[in-house]
## 1
Amino acid sequence: MKKILIILSLVSSIGLTGCADLDITPKNIVTDQDLLNTPAGMDIYMARMYSLMPFEDFKYMAQWGIEFNGWLAAIGIEGTGEAVTRDGISTSFTGERTAYWGRAFELLRDANHLIETLPNYRDKFSEELYNHYLGEGYYVRATVFYAMARRFGGIPLVTKELQYPNTLENLEIPRSSEEDTWNQILKDYDEAIKLMLPKGPKSGYSNKYVALSFKSEAMLYAGSVAKYNETVSGRLTGLGRKTGVRVIGFDASTAKAASQKYFAEAYSAARQVMTAGGYSLYKKKWAANDKEAQYQNMVDMFSDLSSPENIYVKEYVYPTLTHSFDAFSSPFTVRSPLSAGTCPTVDFMELFDGFDKYPDGTVKVTTGQSNREGEYELYDKPMDFFKNAEPRLRAYVIFPDDIFKQRKMDIRAGVYTGQTPVKPLFTDYSYATADTRYQQLGVYTGSPKTLYLSPRDGSGQQTVDYNGQKMNAAGNEGPFFDNGEATLTGFYVRKWLNTNPAKEVGEGKSDQPFILMRYAEVLLNAAEAAVELKMLGASPADGSDLLQTATTAVNEIRTRAGADLLAGTISGDNTGRDIVRRERRKELAFEHKAKWDLRRWRVLHFEGRDGFWGTQKDKNLYSNNENFRFRGLYPFFSTATGKYFFDARFQWVSTKTFRYTPVDYYFEIPGDEVAKSPKIDQQPNR
Amino acid sequence: MKNSILSALGILCMLSSCSLFEADNYEAPAVELKGIVVDAQTGAPVLTDQGSEGIRVRLTELSWGDNVEHNPDFYCMPNGTFQNTKLFKGNYNITVDGPFIPLVRTDGDGKVLSDDSKNMELNGSHEIKMEVHPFLKVEWVGDPVVENGKIKAKVKITRAVTEQFFRDKIEPLGNYNPDFLNVTDIQLFVSYSATVGYRARDERWSSKIEYNGDSFKTKLGQVIDIVSTGEIPKGRTVFVRAASRINYDTPRGTGNRRWNYNEAKRVDIP
């Protein structure tokens, strides 16, 4: 026994010896040699960078941040006024659960590595291709810096690949001033624009015009911050405690010049896309004076990959790369597993043409001068209320009784059995009484009971005898006052939803593309920058007529949308600016853009809130000195007449309130990053 | 048998470590800090509302060095007092922010001009008094009366610091604007709760009067009538408080314009 053990240990000790040093590269590690040598390798490098890009599409939730998380997919619910949803995710955009910090530096490292290492492989590619790849590096870096700057203001500008292990001093990079940050973003976009091809080498790559379009968006943000920070208390600026650097806001002496510079850059970038990009608004099915065609055209444009309007698109492919927008934001009866994630508000509807309004600008539902006066107007069918609605609105929002997936969307808040004419259901529609609901009204709780509502669907439905038949109080699509899974506001979103009735709805079953940048936005960027420049008394470098450009751009969009055209030329003042802003609110709704626009316009905090809707609207209609809320439009059926009437009331189901203070215009820097670094500053006003 | 005892012992040895049998050697936080925020001139407590719109108390434990983050903020009670009975002992900086001249004032370049915050070694039970200069003084004039479910109250608003004093303290901070001194609004908060204030107000009945620009200037020291809105049901007991503020946010840049309050009064609706 002992002998065997000795022999065994001797034999195994022989097996452990060797003579060669292990200095060959392991085969399972991918190196620069493999990737930066050929276009095929570059595809892989780019695919990794693009998969980390902070794009906001179906897999972005404002409350959660850049998590690439498609759960509960909904758009416009973060206090933009476009829509609301039942869950806690429907809250003001005052920060993100996962701050865009760590992931940003990861991607920056990849971009910086490309910029620094690719020159070693210059001879492997044609001159143009080499330049394009290098340009992609700058484009990615600009994208990351821009995504961070609009969240935090000044950020650590990591413009080289950090080598480690290294001493702490060489790795710690403090936040730069906000002005330097925007200048770096401008520089990186310009470098990308100079280097990139007018058309990407492959589908999915960026190109010169993509960079120009995003540059115009970024510079509009920078210009707005420089200008509108001045309208917030304390000028919204401050120095970092550790570094003494102006990490948020602009110095009083440079703010005006900076805003002019950035607006001019935004304008010229957008103009270049307009004059040389070869893009145009999608009008494949559009026909003049044909509302039905104009509506169908705008429904189709969001899923048509051949659209000439698409500048930058995130594509999905079933079954390998999918999202779940239909699974979470479809109407109630289409639910799988959830529904009604995106319920548009009546405040949003009021931005559009085709409705009668009261003197205060809210939608007219009664014969009186406000919605608590007069009697309800009656309609034979719910769609009659919307018969003049702008086709664009109908393409974005599902109205009560409109067709979706070849079915009528049966949306009804309740049934009224009292005599007509019907007086307004509430005596007070002011913000202070927003928490009084239909189910608390005497007509519902009292006797005789004349108002029927349903807490839930199915057996939860109250019924009314009408023409010898039982009629459910609420429509099949809701709203139900105790079930937030149906519409909360009387509307469902239509934009982005798959319209094919045969297509299966479910988690990870959707493959519609998301348009990250389209030509309509470029037009609106040009228009907004033009008006801002005019107000600053500047003239553009290309000699174009600022206000004419703005007017043409807005009219082009309105023509396609089927909206009323402008009566004259847009003026170079706040009125003109608000025309462009309102158009932007309408056209780019449900595209993850509005929340940034509201931030850069600085119209979310109470003092600035009159401008919240892009146009001037009295904030006291929908907010107190802190919170604000949105309203729904609730259709009721009157059994005495067989007709419908509408009531516009603060969100009835799963009530949400929103709140914003000037502090929120700059997100908090993650506390642990501040605590562990001797150089990273927290926002000075926190 | 012997083997299994040995292996059990072996396993026990492996599982043990030097500190396994020692008790946690850090004391539970038991240091108490009680304080009150008072008007430096009159010695009267500065009344507030409990919440982030009221008086904020910020402690910073300094032994962590230069790169320290402040402790979680907490807020004064409506009567202007605050307390925290679960603090670790240590060397703290204590400061309060509210409707009064900031205790720590820095100029536009971040240079500290004046620092009235307190640095203290906390290790037992402490009571402190923070002396501040409030912006406004809000007083009841007589008792509120009830008519048809509405509360009618009379209040008087005066400045607690002179305009010159305010200017002397605030102007060096940069970007001074005479509009800072404007009284912007008077609030009448109504609530079922005795801790009535901005946070605990009932929006059905609370009311406000807003003033544009410096239109309130002539009304300083005058008796102002303010009436609640809506109709409070009969037989209820509510509490009311008035508050007023100027056009100056503290800390600067937060947009948080804090109110000065008077004391709550109980009102029975007959």
## 2
Amino acid sequence: MKEKFKYIGKSIRKHDVKEKVTGKIKYAGDMKLGGMLYAKMLLSDAAHANIINIDTSKAEALKGVVKVFTHRDVPKNYYNSHKWYKGVDFPRDELILTEKVRHVGDRVAIVVAKDMETVERALSLIKVEYERLPVITSIEDAMKEGTTYIHGLSNKAFEKTIKCGDSSQILKEAEMVFEDVITTPKQHHAAMETHICVAEQDSFGNITVWSPCQVVFQVQLIIAEALDIPLDNIRVIKTIMGGSFGGKGQPILEPICAFLAMETGKPVQLITDRTQSIIGMRSRNASKICVKTAVDHEGKILARNIDADIDIGAYYTNGSAVPMAMGKKSFRMYKIKDQTFNGRSYFTNTVVGGACRGYGSPQIHAATEINIDNIARGLHMDPAELRLKNFVKPYDKDPTGGPDLGNARVIDCVERGMKVFKWKKKRSKAKAKGRFVRGFGMACAVHGNGYHGAYPDFITMTMRITNDNAVVLKSAIHDQGCGTVTTMKQIVGEVLDIHPDKVIVPQADTAFSPYDSAGTQASRVTFVCGGGAKKTAELAREELIAKSSVILDCKEDNITIKDGFIWNVEDEENKFTFGEMVVKIQNELEEDIEVTHTYKSPANPGVYAVNFVEVEVDRFTGLVKVIDVLAVHDIGQAINRDFVEGQIQGGAHMSIGLALSEEIKIDRMGRVGTLNFSKYHIINAPDMPDVRVELIEEGEALGPFGAKSVGEVCAAATAPAIINAINDALDINITDLPATPERVLKAIREKG
Amino acid sequence: MKLEFIVNDKHEIIDVYPGERLLDALRNKLGLTSVKEGCGEGECGACTIIMDGAAVTSCTILAMQAKGKEIITTEGLEKSGELDILQESFMKNGAIQCGYCTPGMLMSSKALLIKNPNPTKEEIKRAIEGNLCRCTGYTKIINAVLDAIER
Amino acid sequence: MSEIIIKTPDNLEALIECLVCANENTGLISGGTDFVIQLSQRKRYRGTIIDLSRINDLKYVKEDKDVIRIGSGTTLTDISENKLIKKYLPSLSQAAGQVGSTQIRNRGTIAGNIGNASPCADTIPPLMSVGASLKIVSGEGKIYEKTIDEVVIGSGRNNLKFDEAIVEIVFPKLSNDYISAFAKLGTRKAVTISKINAAVALKYSPKEKLIEDAKVYLGALGPKSFRSEIVEEALNNKIPSKELLKYFSKALTKQVDISIAGRSSQVYKREAIKGIGHDIFYKLFGNVVPGGDS
């Protein structure tokens, strides 16, 4: 059988693995510019306080210190680092350095010096006097009447209801209603590269910023707003990314570093250590979600009510977007005619929230998928069967008027997974009586493909075929390590029938990249940017054919393109490489092969992940070992199988952490207990199971070659599947994540 | 203070200050930027190097403690233009995503293979237990090491 | 730039010379796995550091007629893999193999683990269970022995004067009918700080099937590892059986209730120590009492 694609779906190596495997590749932290200064921030150790005095004299007296900055020295332009384009606005409550600290980790001062050793010593010599204020560390505290307000006159930052039909009436009258309150923790992104940035000002006053970022145009915008300087005086270059997972999505260091470069007139490298990356950057928002579901005896969901309270931490950032994202997901997995989602965000004196792989999906699916399993238990039904009775079907509409679901294949995922995992057989096994008990669980998740239907979602791309036989795709893409560059190469290679090695894909640089409306966010890169690459390549192909037909003096229909060669089908003897043909076009026609296209995302279908897991619970210690994970994904079509597996295995890693061990612990005083990896435990190799991957590739008509997203949905279903498996093992009802050994033993104890 | 040692088969003499970490000396004085800092407390393994045949975290060692030692970093794996079999295998098996943990993973795996050319999967996991990776879930890294053994 | 002076003696005489000049600002390091972290976190800035890691004469495991001698600079990896230690004190081998990560064990030394005197230090309970002693050298050139119990104060403090250094760990070779085991419980399987750890050494001959002379030491339940006579009593003069395992576990729980009464961690630890009890019991008696894997 002839294969459908030549390059699509193949496991081609990432473009930069050789540079990475030899250790030669340079991250922002490896950059050294002539005369470069080093900088680091002093972060607050008080959770809520007014700064009465900062004594920087000893630090400034230290040899090698260039300057120490405090709130007195920085511009007072409030900004919101979540804003990613002109035309949208969110409450602006952030400054470069603050006079009132609102969480442990808030920005108090910055030292700039000639070397890092001096920076560190100077930081230790700064004395800060605080006037302490009452501290709010939980949603419950934040809600209280007459409590301390972190900003303005309420700790409630945002509230919104999304609904279809009338759930309240049905819930009131229903015979069977299952209610669960699920909590999820603040999670650290834990990219191995901590946050870092380099900036330099040139003699014209223009600022260049090098940053491992996700959206160069957002970085440019935030710097402009924070420093009140013209956007076009700022150039942002995306550097090699040492991991982000959303953590480096919002510009945090960039405006600060740009400011330092302007103030000192020297290149500055602004560095954070792990502790600062945990407490001073962003986190996954904590949540407390109450789910009430009415069902009939057959397991058909009649109505559902979801109340989600989100702890967004000390600053607003995306405090409205996360609950909205959670809400929207609630309507795109199960067909529920009557459903209400209430989302509320609260300020607390804790680590600031932001984008984090999944963007609300891990929290909302933890809640709803644990609740679904509890319904199944209550009805003595198989939880997979119960789900199958309620899933959306391909091409269903979103009941709230959101974008159509497209070729939604969640049912296929569950059916395939049940078979491969041998679900029924495993679930029906009698539970062991001894110390170690096995349990089996499953859970599902849905995510999107970009911003279509909500925010502008387009990318402009330029493609040129060079006279040296390369295809250059210029656009503002940001490879986060997932393989974006190679993904684009494969798409372009497929369209032009040229080996992906011949395709050059430079990454985002605001000076040279055409505009992109949203960057690496919202699971849009493969679907939207990949769609753009495909369309742009098609246009380039048309242009190449048209001009070649002039050169070869034949009809366009006679032009053949194959394996990087182009020729007149009637003249097989004279085949040309693209480069040779471009030379002819340039010399004989005084023309070129270059196209520019602005691609608007045509849709925003759902992508689905279904995870089946087996756990072993130690009834004595409460430790849980994940034995097996089977991840079945509806992804339309894999562009690169190896990358897809890599995403799913990495997403599972993050989700297992959320289920079992990861939590930024904050005490009643607002102090952070998990300041480094010795206390903040991400899953290490001995605790990580092999993650088996099954792909449903039924094609999404509006995606490039049928592809949909995978990078975020893969981080959402494993955690609830694990919790469901633990609850299955012991017939307990854990609803607080992570299921620490203490919580597992408590649940066993309470069951008696 | 003068520090004399062998790094990637080369005799090196550099100036270090007494409290300087080996990590910083290798990066700043010898430009060996494959040695990464991820936590500064020996928990993430990004700064792992091989010292006298054993994998160690260079953020928990003073530069002066490396006096007279033989050190290998990822820059030293390539021999006369040929990549080490582990490097080839990491590339082939999709073991690399963001790449920040990669040099440390290579060092821990290499040290394991020096000591034990035929490790089991469990032994590989133990060798990299101190190397954290957020991107891959370790599966492809472990497969890469297993593949290198077979070759 | 930094006000730290590092001395790197490469033999015992040179070490003593360094110790002669020691004062209250002098610190000893070997692997440096803990010290260098403190240094980079700006917790220490001044003083003289004597680095023992270059003294190759302190890296050994030796067998004498009645005792095993371990050089203070022996790494935890070497201890965990050493045949003599596996033979004479498996509990120590097991403990050393579970400290930190591979990289840390390759560098961290036994004297460092003891000297840091952390409440959850893993090598201390096994050493205490056999009454190990430490050979200490002073700036005056004197060498004397103290028991490990005397030297470790706990909560991160030790009894060594600033001009003293541990040079050797000595423990008696127990006769063939003694067996030992170690187990720990952390928040995960590997690379974890002990929430509880325990070492047991006891006399047991398969012929008589009777447990005698049990020594049980528990860690992370107080400022330092301590002996639990309650648990020892539960074991002594008993025959290994499933019933004994239950009895042993109950005694462990009782000990937790006494040791950390009222602490928030008591609720969890009193139950979870059952896991440690089982691990140790089956390491000791897995060949005579089946059922260790369930």
